């Protein structure tokens, strides 16, 4: 069961999506920018047989493996300690590549190149899912953490340039209007 609004919307979106259960296979997923594994534990592990996790902070991966994931840690095949600019996922391995709140930390070019590499890592019918904050207009740079929030149309353009097709988009509901909108984009 999904424990909070952020993961609950991910579960709901997955369960009723055109790429969800019964469409894409459920053998292996990759969680990019996974942190300690909240999305892995709450969204992906209940669905997928095995997983791989990637984060650039080793302490997060260690905490996920040693504490947070509990018995489910045995189902994680590989922990990648890389930033996404350096990660080249294995070819034709994943049914889902999930990126939640990490696309905003990549430049347009780095994001496009990473998506191109992820496309090669998909198994037949596999999908890439980005869930991230999206600007209401243009792009907005956060001077504190150097993240960039892009408008949905700008994100779609990057996806197109990476040679991917948008399958579906969904806005996360349940957030106050004062909060930057969060969107999920599924692509192949």
Automatic annotation (TrEMBL):
It holds the Pfam family Methyltransf_PK. CDD domains: AdoMet_MTases. GO terms for biological process: methylation. GO terms for molecular function: N-terminal protein N-methyltransferase activity. S-adenosyl-L-methionine binds at residues 33, 38, 84-85, 100. InterPro entries: MeTrfase_NTM1 (IPR008576), SAM-dependent_MTases_sf (IPR029063). Keywords: Methyltransferase, S-adenosyl-L-methionine, Transferase. One of its GO terms (cellular component) is cytoplasm. It comes from the Eukaryota. Belongs to the methyltransferase superfamily. NTM1 family. This is Alpha N-terminal protein methyltransferase 1B.
